[in-house]
Structures are given as C-alpha cells and as structure tokens.
Amino acid sequence: MSSTTWTEQHIPDQHGRVAVVTGANTGLGFETARILAARGATVVLAVRDVDKGKQAAARIAGDVTVQALDLTSLDSIRSAAADLRAAHPRIDLLINNAGVMYTPRQTTADGFELQFGTNHLGHFALTGLLLDQLLPVPGSRVVTVSSTGHRIQAAIHFDDLQWQRSYSRAGAYGQSKLANLMFTYELQRRLAQHGTTIAVAAHPGVSNTELTRNSPAALRLPLTWVAPLITQDPEMGALPTLRAATDSAVLGGQYYGPSGFGEVRGFPKLVASSPDSHDYAVQQRLWTVSEELTGVTFPLGLTVQ
User: Fold this and answer.
1) How do residues 151-182 score in pLDDT, each as one tens digit?
2) 102 an active-site residue?
3) Considering 102, 173, 255, 256, which one is annotated as catalytic?
4) Closest CA to 175 of 161, 156, 160
5) What is the pLDDT of residues 217-258, one digit of tens each?
6) At what angle do helices 169-191 and 123-134 cross, to 10 degrees?
7) Where are the domains positioned within the chain?
8) Closest C-alpha among 202, 149, 144, 146 to residue 172
9) Which residues are CB-neighbours of 86 under 8 A, at least 6 positions away?
10) DSSP state at residue 260
11) What is the domain class of 8-294 according to CATH?
12) Is residue 34 within 8 Å of residue 78, measured between CB atoms?
C-alpha cells in the first residue's frame, strides 16, 4: 500500500471493538469518532461539555455514547475512568486526542499549567487508569495526538514545569506536545513485554479546527488569510490518528503525520520526531514526575526491563 494514498477506505471493519476518543465533540476528535463508528466500532465520546457531546453523538451514525471527562481535573479523570471501567470490561482503542493550544497562562483545578496539565498530564493519568482494560485485548492501542509544535521552543522544563517564573504560550504548548511523544515512546517500551497493547503517536499537520482560537491576535488575522492555502480540513487531519489506530502494519512507538511538504497536509505516512523526543533519560524522568504529579501509577509489572 502506498504511504501517500492511505484513506479512511483502508480502515478495516471495527465491529466488536471499543474506542474511547477524548475531545470528540468537535474537530479532529469528532471526525475520528465518526469514522470509527461508521466502520462499526462502539465509540465513547469522552468530553468536557456533555451537552455538546450529546449534540455531536446525534450527528454520528452508529453505536456512540458520551462520557463526561474534564482533563483539567484529576477528580474528573478518576471518575470518568471508573465509569468507563464499569461500562467497558475491554477497551480496544484509547485515543488521546483532546488538547488546548496557545492559551493565556492559566492553571488546572490541580494547579498545573493548563497546556501541560491538559495535553500531557491529563492523558497520562487517564491512560494509567484505563490500561488494565486494554492490556488483555489483542491488537489494543493507545494513540496520543502530538503536533509539529513539539519542535518549536520545545523542551521539558523540569526546573519550572508549570511556567511559574515566566510564561510563553508557544513554549508551553511545545513542551506539552513534546511530552506527548516522550510519553508514547516510554509507554511503548514498558508495553513491549506484554505483547498485546501498543502505543503510537500521530499529528494532524495544520488543520482548520477550533484549536487555534487562543492564538495571539497578531497571528489570527494572517492565519485567516492564508488558512485555505496551508491547512486541511478535519477529515484529512484525522487520518494520521486513524491510521495509527487501525492500520495492521503499524508498530508500537511509531509516529504518523501528513505526507506533504513540511508535514503540513496530505495523506498519512510514517514520520520522524525530533531528536529531543528520543532522549531516553528525559523520557524516564518525565514518567516519574508525571506519576508523582498525578498520583497515578501504571499497572504492576509495567516497568522497563
């Protein structure tokens, strides 16, 4: 199969599979959920605004339910995970899609910087709390959505993870998206001993979604002019995630993004992440810090061999 022509038509039948998609009421998450449901999956829209989630579910044909999930609150994450464990003894796909971008400095309910807390720590905690539902399931996957922003002003600032001394919207976003990749790679290393679940990452290129609503005003106006030339619609933007989630050729620890110039747009293919994202020592340190901050430890035995 050509890597430049993979489309939703290549997604195999998903009947009998359960997929949990965070942030699925709009944009990339909605398209991911819609297409999985169209292929027969039982899909859970895990969303902060339940009313918007129900409106989204009404627009999707198939077996779709809505689960309240606020990734800015560890209490909400624990409650949602408990609900999901009770409703779904097995989960085939956990798609960590939700995210915020370029927000003014704000904190989560637990005091974390909003972008790092939502994009990384929230999904780290949710994954740890649901992993027992995935581990026994052959072919199960954790797919985490990163961004080309993981290369921009991006580092894991262990000396100031919550940006309390100074704040950069782009830097905080870059840190969170770099953390998404480092989490995926470290999780895959820990999963490899089990031989069932794999961890994969994806990015959508530049998609025309609500994610950019917090961009600085000086950037939003130029984006309005050039967006039609450099962005792709959410249906195309969701394809790297869908390929990472469903293509039988995908291997744990891989990263998928658009095939076009600069990975801005195009059909999904295997892509490379930055050298920084592969720093083994930083991956391990980030994992340890994330467990400490969230209070979530992964299943017994899920350690690096």
Assistant:
1) 888 899 999 999 999 999 999 999 999 999 99
2) no
3) 173
4) 156
5) 544 445 454 455 567 889 999 999 999 999 999 999 999 999
6) 20
7) 8-294
8) 149
9) none
10) S
11) alpha beta
12) no
